[in-house]
């Protein structure tokens, strides 16, 4: 609940990593009593085994974790890479280091670099790809419990994944808040100013209006704490396109029960898949979009996904 999340945030000073290292005995008893031990899924050894469990609905509470690797195929630029147009554009602001653009103290002193980046990343500039539509199809099949994403590009929403099925761990452009009077705004209200290169100002108090992106030095959104119930309920975890280096998001990969299969679709082995593998872990290494496509083919969902993507591109 909102009150429970606020209490947790207060007690742990916005650092849920502490919570991720503990598993409530009472929580396990309640979940197993209400929902059982996670179904009669076949212990997967391959991608095809995972697909069989999904296709035969042995996995009906799937949690998806995703990072930047699912969005770069859509053309999302990397502002850290020298030589990229976005990186070169940001050099005029004389950043002390690239990550300063997402530090709240730096933002309060100089919001211009962030809004130069926001102009490039604002929802609508890029289109979702097969990975985003796969998550939507999983939802339409009634098998998605929740998607946890590190991305702030909004491509999951654009693909049609309902906001209530998303936990945008690092925030969103969909809403915004005045940094002075805390008035709330719809993200679309900021679009004209952001696209013109201006810093959005609150008409009430003239404070800077900041998209609800989580900066370094800010607390995570309350929705992040849905993991407390989502992950113990999950009967399959799919991790794709993430380095699992940024905490506390990275620790979520270890928050599902030890009996739950975990599927990694990624370019490299990362996190617990590299140093703490479980018997039910399955890895599909290489290009992320190709890996998801192999899963879709094994599910025999290709025709449905193609139709969904075609309809989605017309809607956008």
TrEMBL record:
Its cofactor is Zn(2+). Binds 1 zinc ion per subunit. The keyword NAD applies. NAD(+) binds at residues 68-72, 78-80, 150-153, 242-243, 266-268. It comes from the Eukaryota. It holds the Pfam family SIR2. Coiled coil: none annotated. GO terms for molecular function: histone deacetylase activity, NAD-dependent; NAD+ binding; zinc ion binding. The active site is at residue 170. The keyword Cell membrane does not apply. PROSITE patterns: SIRTUIN. SUPFAM superfamilies: DHS-like NAD/FAD-binding domain. Its EC number is 2.3.1.286. Residues 40-302 form the Deacetylase sirtuin-type domain. Transmembrane segments: none annotated. GO terms for cellular component: nucleus. Keywords: Metal-binding, NAD, Transferase, Zinc. It catalyses: N(6)-acetyl-L-lysyl-[protein] + NAD(+) + H2O = 2''-O-acetyl-ADP-D-ribose + nicotinamide + L-lysyl-[protein]. Zn(2+) binds at residues 178, 181, 202, 205. NAD-dependent protein deacetylase. Belongs to the sirtuin family. Class I subfamily. This is NAD-dependent protein deacetylase. It comes from Xiphophorus maculatus (Southern platyfish).
């Amino acid at each position: 609940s909102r009150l429970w999340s606020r209490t947790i945030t207060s007690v742990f000073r916005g650092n849920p990593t502490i919570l991720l290292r503990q598993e409530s005995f009472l929580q396990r008893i309640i979940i197993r009593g209400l929902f059982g031990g996670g179904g009669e899924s076949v212990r997967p050894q391959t991608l095809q085994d995972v697909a069989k469990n999904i296709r035969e609905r042995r996995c009906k509470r799937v949690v998806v974790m995703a990072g930047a690797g699912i969005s770069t195929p859509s053309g999302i630029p990397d502002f850290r890479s020298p030589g990229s147009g976005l990186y070169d554009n940001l050099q005029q602001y004389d950043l002390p280091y690239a990550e300063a653009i997402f530090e709240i103290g730096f933002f309060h002193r100089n919001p211009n670099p962030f809004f130069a980046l926001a102009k490039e990343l604002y929802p609508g500039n890029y289109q979702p790809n097969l990975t985003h539509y796969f998550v939507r199809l999983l939802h339409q099949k009634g098998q998605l419990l929740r998607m946890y994403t590190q991305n702030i590009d909004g491509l999951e929403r654009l693909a049609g994944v309902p906001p209530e099925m998303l936990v945008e761990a690092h925030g969103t452009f969909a809403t915004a808040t005045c940094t002075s009077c805390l008035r709330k705004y719809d993200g679309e209200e900021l679009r004209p100013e952001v696209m013109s290169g201006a810093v959005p100002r609150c008409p009430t108090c003239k404070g800077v209006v900041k998209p609800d992106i989580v900066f370094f030095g800010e607390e995570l959104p309350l929705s992040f704490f849905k993991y407390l119930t989502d992950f113990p309920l999950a009967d399959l975890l799919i991790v794709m396109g993430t380095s699992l280096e940024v905490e506390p998001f990275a620790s979520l990969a270890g928050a599902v029960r030890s009996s739950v299969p975990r599927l990694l679709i990624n370019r490299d082995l990362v996190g617990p898949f590299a140093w703490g593998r479980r018997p039910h872990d399955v890895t599909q290494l290489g290009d992320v979009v190709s890996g998801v496509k192999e899963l879709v083919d094994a599910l025999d969902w290709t025709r449905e996904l193609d139709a969904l993507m075609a309809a989605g591109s017309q809607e956008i």
